[in-house]
Write a structure and sequence with these properties.
Elements lengths: L1 H6 L11 H32 L12 H27 L13 H31 L8 H18 L4 H4 L4 H20 L6 H11 L23 E7 L5 E4 L5 E2 L4 H11 L9 E5 L5 H13 L4 E6 L12 E6 L4 H4 L14 H6 L4 E7 L4 E2 L2 E2 L2 H9 L6 E7 L5 H20 L3 H10 L6 H13 L4 E5 L1
Parallel strand pairs: 1-4, 4-5, 7-10, 10-11
Antiparallel strand pairs: 1-2, 2-3, 5-6, 8-9
Helix pairs in contact: 2-3, 3-4, 3-5, 3-7, 13-14, 15-16
């Protein structure tokens, strides 16, 4: 025993630690935890502000999600702060350990490994992958983070104790329980600290870039072209006075009287676009349909007949990047809806003579309101596509009849059912395969493919006429 005691002395004298050093270690640990917490908080807020969506809105984190991530950051910070405090407490030779006791070196080595290496690895992973996965914050992706986060905190906490439990002999369990309770209380307090006034900032960003509640559509086959940077995006929403207003993509108000000039100027600017300019309408779903048709008529007067309606995108992976869309060619029947505003010359495009001469053998009239009716019989929305399908042909047309209470969403419901019916008919002749091959060969002329596409489209055309009751 004397021989072993000479070469290895395991005695520990905690009374040799001065109170001043204990207090200083605690303060250094708390300050370090606060700095580390704010570092992680700043990284999250920076990524959140850099990850703007297609309408320049930041990621809005729910209070529940924010509290979860703040608590996670605070727990990690407290573990690392605790490790820094322990390292400082045993950072120089003291009488607490005998000269031949190697546990002091083991404690310092463990804490030195824990803090720098974890910060390095964790920060590296966050920077590399955090930006890619951050868009899932506030979604069901959190369910996959919860258990690993809890396990990580538990492992780190006990890792800081793995040598200390061999050093502390007396009342070890009591000390650990007191330390754990204190750790949890301080972690909770730290998680309530906010580096910035995020609520005010989010409100200002959303006020400058309001979210437009676009309509919902079951038909999404037109969404293959999602990134159309050359398109003219126009918005229609309710203003502060509850009146319907027009806005550009930067949310600047536009006058209705200037809409035609804006479209014409845009077409002149992008005249090099061989596929033609497309106008994209991002409108509130509750807007009365008369405003939508007034908008379409102004486009028609400017000889702009291609229009894309933006509809909601419920895919959490892509919703921040774009809305889905419904394509439409504006019906020239609007010249009969707004006859007082008709100005020659009328637009010229294929099928205009068909509309003008009214060469219809079959007309299906759909009364659109809160309830959809055909021949005075109410038709459920889920049955509408099947009903329309029986009235689509080379010499048929579908008539949309609106009353004053019809909203934009009511119109989109019928339009999506109509397009769904046409798609199903065209699919019987493998139209989806033909159109896909045309897209893949869009820079090389393939007359056979183009002719086949045109044949199917003429056999099952999308053709409507519109009027108000």
């Amino acid at each position: 025993m004397k021989f072993n005691h000479f070469f290895y002395d395991s005695k520990v004298n905690f009374k040799a630690i001065s109170k001043k050093r204990i207090v200083l270690s605690i303060l250094i640990g708390l300050v370090s935890a606060f700095i580390i917490y704010n570092f992680f908080y700043a990284i999250r807020e920076t990524e959140r502000l850099m990850s703007l969506d297609f309408e320049n809105r930041p990621i809005i984190i729910s209070e529940e999600s924010r509290n979860f991530f703040n608590l996670f950051f605070a727990s990690i910070s407290m573990v690392l702060g605790n490790s820094i405090a322990i390292s400082f407490l045993f950072s120089r030779p003291q009488k607490i350990f005998s000269k031949r006791n190697n546990k002091r070196a083991r404690i310092l080595n463990d804490q030195a490994f824990l803090v720098p290496n974890f910060i390095y690895l964790f920060t590296k992973i966050w920077v590399l992958f955090g930006t890619l996965t951050f868009v899932f914050i506030g979604s069901k992706f959190e369910d996959y983070l919860f258990l690993p986060s809890v396990l990580l905190i538990i492992v780190l906490y006990f890792d800081s104790w793995k040598v200390l439990i061999h050093v502390i002999k007396k009342q070890r369990l009591k000390i650990q329980i007191i330390h754990l309770i204190t750790f949890c209380i301080l972690t909770f307090i730290l998680s309530k600290v906010h580096l910035i006034d995020y609520k005010t900032f989010d409100e200002s960003m959303l006020s400058a870039n309001p979210t437009i509640a676009v309509p919902f559509s079951l038909y999404l086959k037109d969404s293959y072209q999602r990134y159309n940077y050359g398109d003219l995006v126009l918005k229609m929403d309710f203003g502060s006075n509850k009146e319907v207003g027009l806005f550009n993509e930067d949310n600047e108000p536009l006058e209705w009287s200037s809409l035609s000039k804006i479209v014409l100027d845009y077409k002149d600017e992008y005249s090099y676009n061989v596929s033609g300019v497309v106008v994209r309408l991002r409108a509130n779903k509750d807007i009365p349909i008369r405003y939508i048709k007034e908008f379409e008529f102004i486009l028609l007067q400017a000889n702009q007949w291609r229009l894309v309606y933006e509809v909601s995108n419920n895919d959490e992976f892509t919703a921040r990047s774009y809305n889905n869309q419904l394509e439409k060619r504006i019906s020239p029947s609007l010249y009969n809806v707004f006859p007082r505003k008709a100005k020659p010359p009328l637009p010229k495009f294929s099928d205009w003579d068909f509309y003008k001469d009214q060469k219809f053998r079959d007309t299906l009239s759909i009364n659109i309101s809160a309830r959809i009716k055909i021949d005075n019989l109410e038709v459920p929305l889920n049955m509408l596509s099947r009903k329309i399908k029986n009235h689509i042909g080379s010499f048929s047309i579908v008539e949309y009849i609106y009353d004053d209470l019809v909203t934009y969403q009511d119109y989109i419901n019928v339009l999506s059912a109509h397009k769904e019916a046409i798609w199903k008919l065209r699919a019987t002749e493998n139209f989806d395969e033909v159109i896909e091959r045309v897209r893949h060969n869009q820079f090389s002329r393939n007359d056979s493919l183009n002719n086949e596409r045109d044949r199917i489209m003429k056999k099952y055309p999308f053709r409507i006429t519109e009027r108000f009751e």
